[in-house]
Amino acid sequence: MKVKVQWKKMKKGIDKNGVELKNSFQQAGPYLGLGVQFAATLVLLIFLGSWLDGKFDSSPWFTVCLGLFGGFAGTYNLIKTTIDLGKKQDAEKK
Fold this sequence. Notes:
Strand content: under 5%
Structural class: mainly alpha
Shape: elongated
Largest sheet: none
């Protein structure tokens, strides 16, 4: 089955939707890395705690303490960044 593509109509749709898509990504862009940043903070501190436990033979205390600290630090950073970005977007709308 052969399908004919009407390029002129398709190009108009892409241009119109491309602008909308670009605006959507610009608005969502600052939020896209927050999850990765949260996970990286948590994982990095857990690995650091595990390494310290091996070095000082104090298993599992460093891992637990640094894991909890990483969870709190990641959550704090996530909330703070989200609030700051929300304020910035509200200021731009006004």
